[in-house]
Design a protein that fits this description.
Blueprint: H1 5-18, H2 23-28, E1 29-37, E2 40-45, H3 46-59, E3 60-73, E4 76-87, E5 93-105, E6 108-118
Parallel strand pairs: 1-6
Antiparallel strand pairs: 1-2, 3-4, 4-5, 5-6
């Protein structure tokens, strides 16, 4: 298990949003993961989080995610990232900018605050 918060979060972005490898959830996410987003605050099990990821990946086909900026302070890591891909609902190219703060505990991600900005490209 990695203890450097930046390395853990870098692995999260690469493993989940670049390579779409669900085994990363078991490796990096706490038993309970609290997610704050525009949809509200929810406590998710790893299985529930995997299911949500699968749904997101199905919507954006052939996606690529890049981390543009990242800063760590103690147990929190702030990231600005960009995902591009083909939106299967519209058939057109989509871009989503992410602003996310991850909180770690014991080398695992246990909480996040995420704002996604569809159609915004800050690269």
């Amino acid at each position: 298990m990695q203890s450097d918060p930046r390395a853990v979060v870098a692995r999260y972005w690469d493993g989940l949003w670049q390579r779409q490898d669900l085994s990363v959830v078991d490796e990096l996410i706490g038993d309970t993961y609290v997610r704050h987003s525009s949809a509200g605050t929810r406590a998710l099990s790893r299985a529930e989080f995997k299911k949500e990821l699968g749904g997101a990946w199905r919507l954006l086909h052939d996606s690529t995610t890049t981390v543009e900026d990242q800063v760590a302070d103690g147990d929190r890591v702030w990231t600005r990232a960009t995902t591009t891909g083909i939106n299967l609902d519209t058939g057109g190219m989509s871009v989503v900018t992410w602003l996310t703060v991850h909180r770690l505990e014991g080398g695992r991600i246990v909480e996040s605050w995420t704002a996604t900005l569809p159609g915004v490209d800050w690269r």
